[in-house]
Inverse folding.
């Protein structure tokens, strides 16, 4: 029965790894969905902000000795602030133009950031030390799961849950949801919509940076780490349907698992499977699985 | 009454005369250029100009931003390369035709999937589809994957003219790009183009007027994809290889930049924009600034979007219209 | 010595057809250094390789027979596209005579094609694919340092001999990785082992976990890494995290550089056996040269950086001896002269362009054995050139007369 035993272990192992990738997809597509919901902006700089998160964590530890745990809080705040500035001074002036212009603006910014870091720190990766507590692995029977990877799943899910809670159950979230539905009306109620927009973009960027810090000890920190990931996340967002927050998270995790599954069955297709799913969803449900209609 | 009808007529005539003069001047420059500049560099500009014009047909005249046009450039290149390498009896023009046909078919496929959505959704769907195409080319054995496809023979045009000669190759490429450009020009100025224009300006209105908007958009998309494929096919014959660079999403971004810089929705804009970008690559590539290319292009992108949405040609046109009536 | 003379004679006979101009074109010798200057392979050749090349130029006083030596360089970003375009323009516009460096095998195969078309010369010192002097050989380039045949032959054979007879191969998905995969498989099979699984990953991958897991579940005793530089380093680090070595499997780096061992540290790499084409501490001459190099770059040279110096020096010497920089004249002279310098003392270039010399099987020292930051290897044994490299009798190179080679 070895013929059957080995694939089972391999299958479970790959699904576990798929879940880890899925956690990143979920975090990133969540940020994209939140930004898109209120601003109607496709944030092409999202991948660069993820990369920025990892790099800021790396530089803080190198130059100021700031450890992982502090970075996990500090870095999203810093990148979030930079996101607020970006929204206020670059995105707002073109907010009344065709939304395609904001997509192109963030694309240009992503190019700049990626190239700047390549020139400053080279394009090969830099290692970020795994926090002391998470050195070592736990034996799950079918695989050795490094502790840090287990933590990534827990942390990502916790943050997704918290974000969902804030948006669905708090007053701030209520404003946000209402602003998404009808900004004019909200303005009429005396709510400072421009400020809410700035804050929302900053929050989205902070989520990307948080994902970046989580990724730093896992993958080598490199300027291009976000660029290729982002395209996959875009496909995830199209599959999930742009509006939905729950859709972003669920689809992100599901796509990670599907990718893991493909790695066992037919590894060559692992890179294309998400796009293939996207094509199928588009044929059957043009607005995405959780979309309400455009 | 007479003045009001006469005036536009003379205006129209003088505008046409000016366009003709400009066109002839540009053609004259293109004809002597290879004696002054490096022909391969010029051919690169021509291919990218055609690519950008094809892209602009969609963005500028239908209002659809495709973020996946690299897929067509890459397909044109790979299929042409494959045909010319595999079947040694094939003449280059047939190879290019094959590549163009393949890109057109792919365009039909993409179009059917993406055309139902607009704006940002359309951009993301085309991007994702192009990425899928990229991964297929990465793994398909015939493309050579990361190694690229090398040693594509230039061959003899119609079996007669040896294209190994850079000058012969240049005039062949010029002829192709000129025909492509004229085709786009014809499309835009035809009744078909007028309908596209109506769709761009007000889609619900065009629907209510009884136009089958989806069919018009699809046809425009397919034409655009086909011409982008033609550009890729020609480029492969010039450089004698095809590689993943042409199918990568960076290329889709770069063609947007070319068009934006030159002027979206102007016929000459993409030509000017692509010449500038290719020239920039060329000049900076060998210098210390070469590694800063991404920053420079990104900055141009940001500036264009913030301050310069009409692009160079759009700006000049506005200036001419205002001051040189 | 009989064996070495026969192929040489054949090569000479083939080359006499080429016309000889006994002068140096444009009164300048123009060298283009094409390499990955910023990416995954930066540490192997990169800026350090350019420094090594400049050292060779300086050793000639910056000129040969009154003709100035001009060096230019470009970053190919490991893209065959960029590499081929740069080379074409260097030749068309800059009248470059020779292209040196050449890292990614994919770039090299694209570039040497152009060199053959235009009759210029290439000094390949960093690429590893053994196909470069096999099915892709041209009369316009020579291949220095290692190749995948020699590396697989050296390392894999030794490991199978020690009992590591079932293999899982993880290869970089492009020309180099493919060649290494094929050469390892052939070596393992020939030594009586078997290959149970194969996987390929894209160049400069960030995440090796799923590949490591695949290899782990394959049940192979040895996981062969047919990749290089940062890919090898990342794969080894990931394998450690997933407890690969705890479950009794071992890793075999088939293409390990001193810069990788330095980056990973002795703690992680001690006891690893690998093949190297050169080691800075191999003899008196190499130590002296390495010291010069270290003073300029603050790093010890990798084997390919040493190879760049050696090949450039050999090339310039051939121009000096013949008074010409015409590719075929220089090649003829290079093939006729043995290579004897800080790199090797018994090298010779075969008619397929392969520089054949003795390589070494080394073992990484334990932290206790090491006496300094760069004191990393102890030499297990020397691998004679004729044993290390693919024999001409198996060659598919168009320049090799197989009938003639078969007899030797």
């Amino acid at each position: 029965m070895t013929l059957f035993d080995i694939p089972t272990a391999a299958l479970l192992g790959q699904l576990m790894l798929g879940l880890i990738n899925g956690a990143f997809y979920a975090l990133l597509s969540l940020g994209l969905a939140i930004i898109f919901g209120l601003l109607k902006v496709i944030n092409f700089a999202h991948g660069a902000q993820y990369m920025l998160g990892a790099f800021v964590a790396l530089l803080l530890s190198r130059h100021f000795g700031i450890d992982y745990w502090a970075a996990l809080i500090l870095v999203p705040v810093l990148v979030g602030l930079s996101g607020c500035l970006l929204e206020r001074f670059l995105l707002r002036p073109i907010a009344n133009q065709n939304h395609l212009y904001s997509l192109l603006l963030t694309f240009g910014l992503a190019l700049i950031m990626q190239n700047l870091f390549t020139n400053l720190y080279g394009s090969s990766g830099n290692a970020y030390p795994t926090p002391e507590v998470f050195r070592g692995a736990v034996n799950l029977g079918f695989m050795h799961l490094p502790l840090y990877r287990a933590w990534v799943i827990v942390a990502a899910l916790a943050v997704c849950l918290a974000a969902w809670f804030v948006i669905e159950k708090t007053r701030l979230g209520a404003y946000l949801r209402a602003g998404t539905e009808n900004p004019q009306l909200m303005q009429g109620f005396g709510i400072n919509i421009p400020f809410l927009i700035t804050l929302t973009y900053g929050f989205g960027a902070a989520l990307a940076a948080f994902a970046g810090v989580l990724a730093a000890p896992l993958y080598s920190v490199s300027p291009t780490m976000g660029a290729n990931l982002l395209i996959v996340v875009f496909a995830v967002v199209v599959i999930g349907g742009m509006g939905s927050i729950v859709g972003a998270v669920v689809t992100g995790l599901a796509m990670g698992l599907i990718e893991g599954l493909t790695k066992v069955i037919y590894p060559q297709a692992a890179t294309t499977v998400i796009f293939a799913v996207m094509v199928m969803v588009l044929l059957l449900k043009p607005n995405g699985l959780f979309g309400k209609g455009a | 009454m007479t003045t009001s009808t006469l005036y536009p007529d003379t205006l129209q005539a003088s505008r046409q005369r000016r366009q003709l003069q400009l066109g002839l001047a540009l053609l004259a420059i293109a004809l002597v250029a290879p004696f002054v500049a490096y022909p391969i560099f010029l051919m690169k500009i021509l291919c990218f100009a055609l690519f950008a014009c094809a892209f602009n047909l969609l963005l500028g005249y239908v209002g659809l931003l495709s973020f996946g046009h690299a897929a067509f450039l890459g397909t044109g290149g790979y299929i042409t390369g494959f045909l010319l390498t595999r079947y040694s009896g094939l003449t280059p023009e047939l190879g290019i035709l094959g590549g163009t046909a393949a890109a057109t078919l792919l365009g039909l496929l993409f179009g059917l999937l993406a055309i139902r959505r607009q704006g940002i959704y359309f951009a993301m769907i085309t991007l994702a589809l192009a990425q899928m195409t990229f991964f297929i080319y990465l793994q398909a054995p015939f493309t050579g994957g990361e190694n690229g496809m090398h040693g594509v023979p230039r061959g003899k045009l119609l079996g007669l003219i040896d294209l190994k000669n850079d000058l012969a190759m240049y005039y062949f490429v010029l002829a192709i790009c000129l025909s492509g450009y004229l085709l786009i020009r014809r499309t835009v100025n035809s009744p078909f183009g007028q309908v596209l224009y109506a769709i761009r300006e007000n889609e619900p209105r065009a629907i209510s007027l009884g136009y089958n908007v989806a069919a018009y958009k699809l046809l425009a998309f397919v034409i655009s994809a086909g011409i982008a494929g033609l550009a890729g096919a020609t480029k492969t014959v010039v450089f004698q290889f095809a590689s993943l660079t042409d199918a990568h999403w960076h290329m889709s971004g770069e063609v947007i930049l070319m068009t934006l810089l030159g002027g979206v929705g102007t016929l000459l804009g993409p030509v000017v924009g692509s010449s500038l970008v290719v020239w920039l690559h060329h000049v900076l590539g060998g210098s210390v600034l070469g590694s800063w290319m991404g920053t420079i292009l990104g900055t141009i992108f940001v500036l264009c979007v913030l301050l310069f949405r009409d692009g160079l040609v759009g700006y000049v046109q506005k200036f001419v219209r205002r001051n040189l009536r | 010595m009989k064996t070495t003379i026969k192929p040489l004679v054949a090569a000479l006979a083939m080359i006499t057809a080429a016309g000889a101009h006994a002068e140096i074109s444009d009164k300048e010798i123009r060298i283009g250094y094409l390499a990955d200057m910023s990416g995954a392979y930066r540490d192997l050749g990169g800026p350090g390789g350019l420094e090594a090349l400049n050292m060779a130029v300086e050793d000639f006083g910056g000129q040969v027979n009154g003709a100035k030596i001009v060096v230019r360089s470009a970053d190919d970003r490991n893209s065959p596209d960029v590499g081929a375009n740069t080379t074409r323009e260097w030749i068309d516009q800059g009248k470059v005579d020779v292209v040196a460096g050449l890292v990614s095998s994919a770039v090299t195969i694209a570039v040497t094609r152009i060199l053959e078309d235009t009759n210029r010369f290439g000094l390949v010192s960093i690429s590893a694919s053994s196909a470069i002097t096999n099915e892709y050989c041209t009369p316009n380039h020579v291949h220095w340092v290692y190749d995948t045949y020699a590396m697989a032959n050296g390392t894999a054979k030794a490991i199978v001999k020690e009992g590591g007879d079932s293999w899982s191969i993880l290869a970089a998905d492009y020309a180099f990785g493919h060649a290494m995969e094929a050469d390892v498989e052939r070596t393992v099979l020939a030594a009586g082992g078997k290959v149970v699984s194969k996987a390929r990953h894209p160049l400069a991958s960030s995440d090796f976990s799923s590949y490591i897991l695949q290899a782990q579940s394959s049940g192979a005793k040895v996981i062969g890494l047919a990749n290089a530089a940062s890919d090898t380093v990342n794969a080894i680090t990931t394998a450690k995290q997933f407890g690969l070595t705890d479950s009794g499997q071992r890793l075999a780096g088939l293409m390990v550089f001193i810069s990788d061992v330095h980056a990973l540290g002795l703690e992680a790499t001690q006891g690893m056996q690998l093949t190297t084409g050169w080691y800075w501490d191999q003899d008196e001459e190499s130590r002296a040269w390495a010291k010069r190099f270290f003073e300029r770059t603050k790093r010890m040279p990798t084997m390919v950086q040493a190879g760049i110096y050696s090949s450039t020096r050999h090339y310039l010497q051939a121009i000096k001896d013949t008074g010409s920089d015409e590719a075929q004249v220089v090649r003829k002279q290079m093939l006729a002269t043995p290579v004897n310098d800080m790199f090797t003392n018994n090298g010779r270039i075969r008619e397929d362009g392969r520089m054949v010399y003795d390589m070494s099987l080394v073992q990484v020292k334990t932290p206790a054995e090491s006496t300094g930051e760069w004191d990393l290897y102890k030499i297990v044994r020397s691998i004679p050139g004729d044993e290390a490299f693919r024999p001409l009798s198996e060659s598919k190179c168009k320049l090799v007369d197989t009938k003639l080679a078969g007899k030797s």
The two ends of chain C are 11 Å apart (CA to CA).
